[in-house]
Design a protein that fits this description.
353 residues; alpha+beta; Jelly Rolls; six-stranded antiparallel β-sheet; five-stranded mixed β-sheet; globular; binds 2-oxoglutaric acid
């Protein structure tokens, strides 16, 4: 989760920090070359659920330390025995679309709110090559060819308009392409809104309902990790968007009142390394690959453990995103395809109370 302040003990000496540094993307210039290349990383200790699944299918055997969780799903679910959580390609496609179109819609908030206020229809603006323009007091909405429903420039100063709109001479005008805003989208929040500055849930903030289909999926996934007789209540979700070089520092999800309830965490798009540590940053984390469609259940002991994403893979060979990207085959879907080929999305669903 963003906004977690480094702890005093979070020096290079902690086991978690060491693992983050080990897997982080560093670029070096190879001898006789001027181009920077990703440095070699030893990935032999990263748990690979693709091979776990293959050996399970062939020999019904799990690697030491990993066992199968029997939770009535039509596909195997594995868990780490010492720190005790998949989606069809169509489901992945659906959630990528939702994450880029409906999840960032106001009243849900995103990281862009603080600068631009609520932004409506960002993805639509990307598809139509629009530009977000600061509508100053001297430039009327009508001159920019945009329609302001609010009629109050101070309350809503940024508007999407055509790329080639002409700004009247002498008017200074800030603008940013919708495509750049999408690249810079880092999070959106659904259901109860998380306040990053206060690091708590602000129940007074307006928000859109978490879609029923997402609630249903989360309930199904969480069921095996719920206290007996209780049903998971999805109250909030954080959607993280990662581009090349982005990481999510080691943190605890400690803002929910009841840690006996799991967090359901869905991975979409490019492959990533997930670090699952212990209750202290001093505990050496295990590293594992997360691919598109993987679901991590942060439950039981693992609910209280440090975790983070030190690296995502955006190069064609390692991203393993082609099956998903190729689902976006029509001309209208080109923007989805371009986005997901070099990005990762994580949707994590929480019961807050
Ligand atoms: O991106 C992920 O898989 C982990 C996300 C996460 O840890 C969080 O949002 O708290």
């Amino acid at each position: 989760m963003y906004g977690s302040t480094p702890q005093p003990s979070d020096s290079d000496r902690t086991a978690f920090r060491k693992a983050e540094k080990k897997y982080k993307l560093y670029k070096t210039t190879a001898p006789k070359s001027r181009r920077k290349q990703p440095s070699e990383v030893d990935l032999t200790e990263v748990y690979d659920f693709k091979s776990v699944l293959e050996s399970f299918k062939q020999e019904r055997k799990n690697p030491p330390g990993i066992s199968e969780l029997r939770c009535g799903l039509d596909r195997p679910v594995f868990c780490f025995e010492d720190r005790p959580g998949a989606l069809s390609i169509e489901e992945q496609c659906h959630w990528v679309r939702e994450s880029l179109t409906s999840f960032p819609q106001p009243s849900n908030r995103t990281n862009h709110n603080a600068i631009y206020g609520p932004i409506h229809d960002l993805f639509d603006a990307v598809q139509n090559k629009k530009v977000l323009v600061e509508v100053g007091s001297r430039i009327a909405d009508t001159e920019l060819g945009v329609h302001s429903s609010e009629g109050n420039l101070d309350a809503c100063r940024w508007k999407f308009c055509e790329e080639n709109v002409s700004i009247p001479k002498g008017d200074s005008c800030n603008s940013i392409a919708a495509s750049v805003l999408l690249r810079k989208l880092r999070w959106s929040t659904l259901g109860l809104q998380f306040d990053w500055s206060k690091r708590n849930y602000d129940v007074s903030l307006p928000h859109n309902k978490i879609p029923d289909t997402l609630c249903h999926l989360a309930k199904k996934m969480a069921a095996s990790a719920m206290p007996a007789g209780e049903e998971f209540q999805p109250e909030a979700a954080i959607v993280n968007y990662f581009g090349s070089g982005d990481m999510l520092g080691g943190h605890l999800d400690d803002m929910e009142a009841d840690w006996s309830k799991p967090i359901v965490s869905i991975s979409l798009g490019c492959k990533a390394i997930f670090l699952l540590g212990g209750k202290s940053r001093e505990d050496t984390p295990v590293a594992m690959f997360l691919r598109s469609g993987d679901i991590v259940l942060m439950a039981g002991q693992a609910r209280e453990c440090f975790h983070g994403i030190p690296r995502i893979f955006t190069d064609e060979e390692n991203a393993e995103v082609s099956p998903l990207a190729s689902q976006f085959s029509s001309h209208e879907d080109l923007c989805f395809k371009e986005y997901i080929r070099t990005s990762r999305i994580n949707i994590n669903i929480r019961q807050v109370h």
